[in-house]
Amino acid sequence: MKKNILILILSLFTSYSFACSCEYGGNFIKVAQYSDIIVKAKVIESSFRFTLGNEIAESKEESDGLVQIDSAPIPYIKIEVIDYIKGYESRKTLTLFGTDGADCYDGLDQFEINKQYIFAIHERTPDELMPTENGEKIYGMGGCSEMWIEYLPDTNEVYGLIKGKSHRRHKRKYSYKKLIVKLTS
Description:
Helix content is 18%, strand content 34%. By secondary structure, it is α+β, with helices and mostly antiparallel strands. The longest helix is centred in the N-terminal third of the chain and has 15 residues, at 2-16. The protein has one domain: CATH 2.40.50. The radius of gyration is 19 Å and the shape is globular. It contains 4 helices and 9 strands. It has helices spanning 2-16, 28-32, 60-63, 176-184, and strands spanning 37-52, 55-57, 74-86, 93-97, 116-124, 138-140, 148-152, 157-160, 172-175. Strands 1, 2, 3, 4, 5, 6, 7, 8 and 9 form a 9-stranded antiparallel sheet that branches. The termini are far apart.
Protein backbone atom coordinates (compact mmCIF):
# COMPACT_ATOMS: atom_id res chain seq x y z
CA MET A 1 0.00 0.00 0.00
CA LYS A 2 2.83 2.40 0.91
CA LYS A 3 4.55 1.55 -2.36
CA ASN A 4 1.39 2.43 -4.36
CA ILE A 5 1.05 5.77 -2.58
CA LEU A 6 4.71 6.56 -3.23
CA ILE A 7 4.33 5.69 -6.94
CA LEU A 8 1.25 7.92 -7.16
CA ILE A 9 3.04 10.87 -5.55
CA LEU A 10 6.10 10.47 -7.79
CA SER A 11 3.95 10.26 -10.91
CA LEU A 12 2.24 13.53 -9.99
CA PHE A 13 5.57 15.30 -9.63
CA THR A 14 6.88 13.77 -12.85
CA SER A 15 3.90 15.04 -14.87
CA TYR A 16 4.47 18.58 -13.65
CA SER A 17 8.14 18.52 -14.57
CA PHE A 18 7.28 18.87 -18.26
CA ALA A 19 5.22 22.04 -17.83
CA CYS A 20 6.62 25.48 -18.55
CA SER A 21 8.64 27.11 -15.82
CA CYS A 22 9.92 30.59 -16.49
CA GLU A 23 10.57 33.92 -14.85
CA TYR A 24 9.07 37.24 -15.94
CA GLY A 25 11.08 38.56 -18.89
CA GLY A 26 9.98 42.18 -18.85
CA ASN A 27 7.67 44.77 -20.36
CA PHE A 28 6.77 45.04 -24.04
CA ILE A 29 9.44 47.58 -25.05
CA LYS A 30 12.14 45.57 -23.29
CA VAL A 31 11.29 42.17 -24.78
CA ALA A 32 10.13 43.27 -28.24
CA GLN A 33 13.69 44.13 -29.23
CA TYR A 34 14.50 40.39 -29.25
CA SER A 35 11.58 39.41 -31.52
CA ASP A 36 11.99 38.40 -35.15
CA ILE A 37 8.96 40.42 -36.23
CA ILE A 38 6.80 43.13 -34.66
CA VAL A 39 3.45 43.79 -36.34
CA LYS A 40 0.31 45.82 -35.88
CA ALA A 41 -2.44 43.37 -36.80
CA LYS A 42 -6.11 42.51 -36.46
CA VAL A 43 -7.18 39.11 -35.10
CA ILE A 44 -9.40 37.46 -37.73
CA GLU A 45 -9.72 33.91 -36.36
CA SER A 46 -9.22 32.09 -33.08
CA SER A 47 -9.35 28.31 -32.74
CA PHE A 48 -7.32 25.24 -31.79
CA ARG A 49 -5.97 21.99 -33.21
CA PHE A 50 -5.56 18.55 -31.73
CA THR A 51 -4.97 15.07 -33.08
CA LEU A 52 -7.67 12.42 -33.38
CA GLY A 53 -5.86 9.28 -34.38
CA ASN A 54 -4.25 10.23 -37.68
CA GLU A 55 -6.52 13.24 -38.25
CA ILE A 56 -6.14 16.87 -37.16
CA ALA A 57 -9.30 18.52 -35.88
CA GLU A 58 -9.66 22.29 -36.09
CA SER A 59 -12.66 22.75 -33.79
CA LYS A 60 -14.83 21.05 -31.19
CA GLU A 61 -17.52 20.55 -33.83
CA GLU A 62 -15.11 18.53 -35.97
CA SER A 63 -14.19 16.36 -32.98
CA ASP A 64 -17.75 15.46 -31.91
CA GLY A 65 -18.43 11.76 -32.32
CA LEU A 66 -14.89 10.96 -33.46
CA VAL A 67 -12.21 8.88 -31.79
CA GLN A 68 -10.62 9.85 -28.50
CA ILE A 69 -8.44 12.96 -28.54
CA ASP A 70 -4.76 11.99 -28.64
CA SER A 71 -3.29 15.38 -27.72
CA ALA A 72 -4.02 18.51 -25.74
CA PRO A 73 -5.53 21.32 -27.84
CA ILE A 74 -2.99 23.67 -29.44
CA PRO A 75 -4.56 27.15 -29.70
CA TYR A 76 -3.87 29.40 -32.64
CA ILE A 77 -4.96 32.76 -33.97
CA LYS A 78 -4.84 34.10 -37.50
CA ILE A 79 -3.91 37.74 -37.80
CA GLU A 80 -4.22 40.16 -40.68
CA VAL A 81 -1.12 42.34 -40.76
CA ILE A 82 -1.83 46.06 -40.96
CA ASP A 83 1.77 47.23 -40.63
CA TYR A 84 5.22 45.68 -40.19
CA ILE A 85 7.08 47.60 -37.49
CA LYS A 86 10.20 45.38 -37.38
CA GLY A 87 11.15 42.56 -39.72
CA TYR A 88 9.13 41.53 -42.73
CA GLU A 89 7.09 38.62 -44.03
CA SER A 90 5.53 38.70 -47.48
CA ARG A 91 2.17 37.35 -46.31
CA LYS A 92 -0.63 39.61 -45.09
CA THR A 93 -2.12 36.82 -42.95
CA LEU A 94 -0.01 35.00 -40.36
CA THR A 95 -0.85 32.14 -37.99
CA LEU A 96 0.37 32.38 -34.39
CA PHE A 97 0.39 29.09 -32.48
CA GLY A 98 0.08 28.98 -28.72
CA THR A 99 0.70 26.25 -26.20
CA ASP A 100 -0.85 23.18 -24.66
CA GLY A 101 0.92 24.05 -21.40
CA ALA A 102 4.02 21.96 -22.03
CA ASP A 103 6.20 24.82 -23.22
CA CYS A 104 6.55 28.51 -22.49
CA TYR A 105 4.40 29.96 -25.27
CA ASP A 106 1.38 32.21 -24.79
CA GLY A 107 -2.03 30.51 -24.53
CA LEU A 108 -3.71 32.95 -26.99
CA ASP A 109 -7.17 32.76 -25.39
CA GLN A 110 -7.26 36.46 -24.45
CA PHE A 111 -7.49 37.89 -27.98
CA GLU A 112 -10.76 39.19 -29.42
CA ILE A 113 -11.76 38.81 -33.06
CA ASN A 114 -11.55 42.11 -35.04
CA LYS A 115 -9.50 43.86 -32.33
CA GLN A 116 -6.08 45.25 -33.19
CA TYR A 117 -2.88 44.47 -31.31
CA ILE A 118 0.85 44.97 -31.55
CA PHE A 119 2.49 41.53 -31.55
CA ALA A 120 6.17 40.76 -30.94
CA ILE A 121 6.53 37.32 -32.51
CA HIS A 122 9.22 34.83 -33.38
CA GLU A 123 9.44 31.80 -35.64
CA ARG A 124 8.32 28.43 -34.24
CA THR A 125 9.41 24.97 -35.28
CA PRO A 126 6.55 23.20 -37.09
CA ASP A 127 5.25 19.83 -35.95
CA GLU A 128 2.21 17.67 -36.71
CA LEU A 129 -0.20 20.10 -34.99
CA MET A 130 1.44 23.22 -36.41
CA PRO A 131 2.04 22.34 -40.06
CA THR A 132 3.43 24.75 -42.59
CA GLU A 133 1.83 25.41 -45.93
CA ASN A 134 4.32 25.38 -48.81
CA GLY A 135 7.22 25.65 -46.35
CA GLU A 136 6.00 28.98 -44.95
CA LYS A 137 7.12 30.01 -41.48
CA ILE A 138 4.85 29.77 -38.46
CA TYR A 139 5.05 32.03 -35.44
CA GLY A 140 4.33 32.24 -31.72
CA MET A 141 4.88 34.46 -28.69
CA GLY A 142 6.61 33.65 -25.44
CA GLY A 143 4.32 33.48 -22.43
CA CYS A 144 6.83 34.63 -19.81
CA SER A 145 6.90 38.31 -20.73
CA GLU A 146 4.82 41.00 -22.40
CA MET A 147 4.79 40.01 -26.08
CA TRP A 148 1.65 41.88 -27.12
CA ILE A 149 -0.26 45.06 -26.34
CA GLU A 150 -3.62 46.36 -27.50
CA TYR A 151 -3.79 49.02 -30.23
CA LEU A 152 -6.49 51.69 -29.81
CA PRO A 153 -7.25 53.01 -33.33
CA ASP A 154 -9.59 55.80 -32.19
CA THR A 155 -6.80 57.56 -30.27
CA ASN A 156 -3.73 56.12 -32.04
CA GLU A 157 -2.50 54.77 -28.70
CA VAL A 158 -1.48 51.40 -27.31
CA TYR A 159 -2.54 49.88 -24.01
CA GLY A 160 -0.83 47.29 -21.88
CA LEU A 161 2.32 46.57 -19.88
CA ILE A 162 4.41 48.72 -22.19
CA LYS A 163 7.26 49.99 -20.05
CA GLY A 164 8.31 50.28 -16.43
CA LYS A 165 10.04 48.26 -13.75
CA SER A 166 9.06 44.62 -13.34
CA HIS A 167 8.13 45.10 -9.68
CA ARG A 168 5.66 47.89 -10.56
CA ARG A 169 3.65 46.29 -13.34
CA HIS A 170 0.53 48.16 -14.36
CA LYS A 171 -1.19 48.70 -17.68
CA ARG A 172 -1.07 52.13 -19.23
CA LYS A 173 -1.89 54.01 -22.40
CA TYR A 174 1.02 55.16 -24.50
CA SER A 175 1.41 57.03 -27.79
CA TYR A 176 1.68 54.70 -30.79
CA LYS A 177 4.09 57.16 -32.46
CA LYS A 178 6.37 57.15 -29.40
CA LEU A 179 6.24 53.35 -29.32
CA ILE A 180 7.35 53.14 -32.96
CA VAL A 181 10.32 55.44 -32.23
CA LYS A 182 11.34 53.29 -29.20
CA LEU A 183 11.05 50.04 -31.16
CA THR A 184 12.87 51.18 -34.29
CA SER A 185 15.70 53.28 -32.85
